[in-house]
Automatic annotation (TrEMBL):
Protein name: Oligophrenin-1
Molecular function per GO: GTPase activator activity
Biased composition (Basic and acidic residues): 657-675
UniProt-listed Gene3D superfamilies: Arfaptin homology (AH) domain/BAR domain, Pleckstrin-homology domain (PH domain)/Phosphotyrosine-binding domain (PTB), Rho GTPase activation protein
PROSITE patterns named in the record: PH_DOMAIN (PS50003), RHOGAP (PS50238)
Native organism: Picathartes gymnocephalus
Alphabetical list of CDD domains matching this protein: BAR-PH_GRAF_family, RhoGAP_Graf
Major site of localization recorded for this protein: other
Record localization: Cell projection, Dendrite; Cell projection, Dendritic spine; Cytoplasm; Presynapse
Domain (PH) ranges: 213-316
Gene field: Ophn1
Any one GO biological process: actin cytoskeleton organization
Keyword set, alphabetical order: Cell projection, Cytoplasm, Endocytosis, GTPase activation, Neurogenesis, Synapse
Lineage: Eukaryota, Metazoa, Chordata, Craniata, Vertebrata
Keyword Lipid metabolism appears in the UniProt entry: no
A Pfam family the protein falls into: PH
Amino acid sequence: YSSAVQKFSQTLQSFQFDFIGDTLTDDEINIAESFKEFAELLHEVELERSMMVQNASDLLIKPLENFRKEQIGFTKERKKKFEKDGEKFYSMLDRHLHLSSKKKESQLQEADLQVDKERHNFFESSLEYVYQIQEVQESKKFSIVEPVLAFLHSLFTYNNLTVELTQDFLPYKQQLQLSLQNTRNHFSSTREELEDLKKRMKEAPLTCKLPGQPTIEGYLYTQEKWALGISWVKYYCQYEKEAKTLRMTPIDQKPGAKQGTLDLTLKSCVRRKTDSIDKRFCFDIETNERSGTITLQALSEANRRLWMEAMDGKEPVSANTASLSKTVELNEVGFKFVRKCINAVETKGITTEGVYRTVGSNIQVQKLLNAFFDPKCPGDVDLQSGDWDIKTITSSLKFYLRNLSEPVMTYKLHKELVLAAKSENLDYRLGAIHALVYKLPDKNREMLELLIQHLVNVCEHSRENLMSPSNMGVIFGPTLMRAQEDTVAAMMNIKFQNIVVEILIEHFGKIYSGPPEDTTAPPVPPPRVAARRHKPITISKRPLRERPVFFGASVEESGAERLGQTPNGGGVEAPRPLHRSRLPAPRPGADEPGRSPAESRPQPRPEPELGKLGNRLQDGGAKPAGRAANGVVTSPALRTATLQARRPAPRPGICGREGDCDGVPKPRSHGDKPVITRPPVRPPDPPCRTPIPPKLEQRPDLIAGTAEEMPSSV
C-alpha cells in the first residue's frame, strides 16, 4: 500500500495541466499547482509511515531479541552448569558414602576435602543459577515493557502527526475549493457565451479574420445601369472597416474592356427593402468617389447581415425602428430605469439568496421593459409595487445593460482592460484599471459608478444572499464588457472580464475616491521574469511542527557507561529517539548554557494542545534523566506523566521525600537521584483529587478526566 501511494505521489508530481489561452487566472494557478502540493503531502505521510515501520524494528523487535539472546540465553548456560555441577557433586557424594572406614585416615581426609570442594562448587552454581533466574524475572518488568511502550509511542506519534497534518490541510482545502468554485463559475459563464456564439455561427457562417487581413471579403453582385437596361456584374470585394475602403475586382471581364479594380471610400450602408427591388439580399451603399447609391446583392441573408455589420449598415428608417433604437442607448431614460431597479433591489431584495443569479421569466421581463420604455410615457412604472418580483427586476436590468449599442465599459477600452486583468503584478492590475476607468466617457463612468456601488452593497450582505464579489464578477463581467467581434478567442477572455468587475467591487473606495495621481497612462507592467506579487496557495512550504522526542533526556558519562550492562559483559542498546528527515528549527533559548530547565522550556501556546497536557500538569520544567535502582535510565517525563497517572495517589500523610506530598512531586535539582519509596502495607485510601496547576484553572474543559487521558496525550 505504501509503495502504491508513493508511486501515485510521483505521478501527481509529474502531472502537467494544459490550459487554453496565453494567461492563467490566480485561481487557475492554484489549481495547476495543487497536484504538486498533494504529492508533497502524500510523500510526507508515507515518510512518517516508513519511520514508524523502522521504529518497529529498532524499538521493539531488536531489543526483545537482544533480551532473549543475552538474558535468557545466559540463564540457560547457568542452568547447564548447575546441572553439570550437581550431577558431579551427587555422584562423588555417592562414591564417598561407599568408602570403607578401614581405609587410612589420610585417604578419608582427602576424600572429605574433595567432597567439600565439589559441595562448594555445587552451592556456588546453585546460587548463581537461582540469582540469574530471579534477575531475568525481575528485569522482564522493564526490559520487555519498555520496548513495547516505545513502539506504542512511535505508533501514536505517527497517528498524532497525521491528525496535525489534517489540521494543516483544512485551510488549504478551503482555499482550493474556493478557487475550484470560481473556476467552475467562469467555465459556466464562458460555456453559455460559447453556446450563443455557436448558434450565431450556425445561422450566419463566417470566416476567421486574420490580423492584417480585410475585415470581410467575398463575392457580391453590383447593379449596373446601361442605356439599354440593367445588368448584374459579379465582383470580388474586400472591405477594410478601419479605413472604410472597399476594393471591388470584376470577375468576368470582357476582352478589351477598360473596367478594372475599383477602390471606393464608404460613406453609408442601408439595407434594401424587399418590396423595393425584385432581387433578394440587396443593400445600398454610398461612396465618396461615385454620386448616388450603389446597389449590391449578397449571396444569402446571412451573408448580407455580415456585410452590413462590417459596414455599420442601418435598417430602413421607420417610426417603430426609430423608437427602438433610442431604447438601447445610454440616455436619461436608461439612467432612470437603472436607478429604479437598484432602489427596488436594495429595498426589498438585497438579502434574497442568489439575487442576480436567479433568472426571471422572459415574458415578465419583456413586459416590464416594454412598459418602462414606452415612447408615449417612458419611465412611468412603479417597481416598488407587488406586480414585479425581484427576479424580473434583476433580469430586466441585466437585459438592458447587455443590449446597449455599446457596452458600459466601451469597445475602445476593452482590450486594455483585459490586458490589465491578465497582468501577474497585482499592483499593476489595480493601477491600470483605476486609470482606465477615468478614460471612460462621463456618462459611462457615471453609470459604472452607480452599478458598482450597488454591487458593493449587495456583496455586503453575502452571508444572506451568498453573492460574493467573485460571483458578481461572473454575472456582470459579460454584461458590462463585450468584445466588438464575437470570436472564440474573445469568449476565452470572459474570465478576465469577470476579474475586472471583481477588482472594481473589491477596490471601489480607492478607485472612485478620485483619478490616479498619474493620469497620463497606466504604469508599464513588469517583465514576466519578475517575481509574482500573487503567491499561489501552498501547504508544503508551511513551517514544520516540532516532533515530540520520547527518549531525549541526557545522562552522565558514568551512568552511560553502566547503562544496560548484562552479567556476561554485553550491553543492551537503549531505544533511540524518533528522527525526521527535516528537523524543525530549534526554539530560541532551548539549549543555551546557563539557563535553568524552567527557563529553557517552550512557552505554552494560547490554545494548549492535548499532547502537552502531561507536561503542564507537572509544575516543574524539563527534569534531568534519573537512574533507577535497577540501572536502567528512564525518561522522567514518561515516568511522571504516564506511570504515575495510572496508579492511585498516595495517602496525604505519606510523603516520598520532603515536599512530595499529595502525589505531586517537586522538581529535583540536577544530579539528585530519585528516592524509591515502598508502598504502604495496607491498601491505600481512595485516590484524592490531584491539585490543579494555575495554568489550567482557566480551562475547565481540559481538567476533566486528566489522569485517564494522560497516557494518550504523551
